[in-house]
Every structure is written in structure tokens, then in C-alpha cells.
Write a structure and sequence with these properties.
Blueprint (H helix, E strand, L loop, with lengths): L15 H35 L7 H8 L3 H7 L3 H24 L5 H17 L1 H13 L8 H9 L2 H6 L5 H22 L5 H16 L1
Length: 212
């Protein structure tokens, strides 16, 4: 039997309307997250294929993703906003990778070395370097790039630097992050690979700054 309550009687306990609305929003949120991922992946693939010779249009991106213009503008006000999201996504992936590598080392010196190796490896791996360079070239129009990633990447060095005796681990970590990311950027644009000697030198520099 279905009991129909008069509209004047307040709902008791879990409100059915609110619960159903939340379920609908949850399903819609999952669908929207899928749309965003398809747009990011499609744009990244187009940028990789275009390299530094052509920039994909919104029409190209939605066609590659199999979505519509409405879907694109539901999540991004412009293509620049999409490129910024790709940069943020790439930074988060690199942060996760570096944290994983650093966790393998018990000593702070080892953690710093792993960090330097991980950052410069972005220029050493040909596929990663090609993709990163293409994204940076596309990001030129939004005024973003590797410098914006230096601070979050440097934050990973804060604890190792403190353990090494740095008087100001936050400032020192940010300083060396800018330096190492700058070297990585030079290699990307120069299409060159950092040598073992250069990696060792950058590691020694980072350790010297921390211990100073």
C-alpha cells in the first residue's frame, strides 16, 4: 500500500526528493568527468601529433573526442582553459611519479637525487619530451608553462631539505626547483638529453643549497 501524505505534513527523516536529486547529480557528475577526460585525452593526442607546427582547434578536439561543442563549453570557457587543465593534469601526474620515486629512498640525500632524476627524465624520454614540448608550445597563448609547475614540484623537496638542515626549506626548495625545471626546459626546447654528469651536478647543487 502506498501512503500519500498531505502536502502540509513535513517530511520526516531522509527526504526522498533530496535523495533522488543527489543520485541524479552523482550520475551526471560521473558522466561529466568522463566527458572531461575524453576532451583532455583527445586534445593531448592532437597536440602530440601536431608537435610545434599546428595548434588544434576546438572543432578538432570535439571531433577527436566524439563529443559536441556543447559538451566542450559545458566544461571549458575556451581552448586556453583546456590547455591550462592539461598542464595541471600533467603536473599532478609528475608529482605522483616523483613522490613514488622519492618514497623508495630512506635518506634525504637519496630523495633529492630521485627528485632531480625524475624531473630531468622528462627530457630524457623521447615520447614524454615530444608530448611535453607540444603542450608547452600550445600553452604559449595562455601564458603558462613549466615555471608555474616549479612551486608544487619544489614542495616535494621541503621535508628532505629540512632534514638536511636548511634554514628555510620552503624558499630553498622553490629556488632549486626553478633551477632544475629551467634546465629541463632548456633540454626540451633544445631537443637534447641531460647527461649523467649533469644530473649528478644538479643533485650536488641541490644538496649544497639545502646544507648551506
Amino acid at each position: 500500500m502506498i501512503l500519500v501524505m498531505p502536502s502540509t505534513v513535513p517530511a520526516v527523516g531522509n527526504d526522498v526528493a533530496a535523495r533522488i536529486a543527489l543520485q541524479t547529480l552523482s550520475r551526471r557528475g560521473s558522466a561529466y568527468a568522463g566527458e572531461v577526460r575524453r576532451l583532455l585525452d583527445a586534445a593531448l593526442d592532437l597536440m602530440r601529433r601536431g608537435g610545434t607546427t599546428s595548434r588544434p582547434r576546438v572543432a578538432d578536439i570535439v571531433a577527436e573526442a566524439g563529443l559536441s561543442n556543447d559538451a566542450f563549453y559545458r566544461h571549458f570557457p575556451s581552448k586556453d582553459a583546456l590547455v591550462a587543465a592539461i598542464l595541471e593534469d600533467g603536473t599532478e601526474r609528475l608529482l605522483s611519479y616523483l613522490a613514488h620515486q622519492m618514497a623508495k629512498e630512506p635518506a634525504p640525500e637519496g630523495k633529492v637525487r630521485r627528485w632531480v632524476q625524475g624531473v630531468l627524465a622528462q627530457a630524457a624520454d623521447e615520447d614524454i619530451a615530444t608530448t611535453t614540448l607540444a603542450v608547452l608550445w600550445n600553452a604559449g597563448s595562455v601564458g603558462q608553462g613549466l615555471p608555474s609547475a616549479s612551486r608544487p614540484l619544489g614542495a616535494l623537496l621541503r621535508d628532505p631539505f629540512a632534514a638536511l638542515g636548511s634554514a628555510d626549506p620552503d624558499a630553498d626548495a622553490t629556488f632549486v626547483a626553478h633551477a632544475v625545471v629551467g634546465v629541463m626546459s632548456d633540454h626540451l626546447w633544445g631537443r637534447s638529453c641531460p647527461s649523467r654528469a649533469e644530473i649528478d651536478h644538479m643533485t650536488d647543487l641541490c644538496l649544497a643549497v639545502a646544507r648551506a
